[in-house]
Amino acid sequence: MITSLHPLGRISLTNRYFTDLVSRAAQSSFGVAGMSPVDTADSLRAMVLNNTDHQGVRVTADETGVTIELHIKVAYGVNVRTSVESIAHHVRSEIERATGLRVARVNVCVDDVISD
Question: What are the pLDDT digits (tens) for 70-108?
């Protein structure tokens, strides 16, 4: 659970909600062809639950803000550097806008290239 304190009270977001929000923001970014598993546990969870919605997203929070790690597949032919910079910027702005939380860092790992 990600919790933030405000003068009027505490705001808590479940990990499921937050990873879903991050995943949707990432997948709506130009050049993203899909999400890749973060690790073996992520891959097994997706197979067992038959649900890949949260695959490829790892979120940690501390006093400096939220750190987001994305594992993505990019479309063949896109400029990877430009696409990754755009994805990081888009995810950061969407999460900060939707939650009011400070995003300290967005790490984008390109794990695969997909041709159409």
Answer: 999 998 989 999 999 999 999 999 999 998 889 999 999
As a whole number of Å, the CA-based R_g of the chain is: 15
Token digits of residue 79: 């400029």
Please enumerate in sequence order all residues whose Cβ is within 8 A of that of 8, keeping only pairs 6 or more positions apart, or say none. Answer: none
pTM of the model: 0.81
Q: Which residues are CB-neighbours of 110 under 8 A, at least 6 positions away? A: 72, 73, 74, 80, 84
Residue 75 CB burial class (10 angstroms; 0-12, 13-18, ≥19): middle
Total residue length of the chain: 116
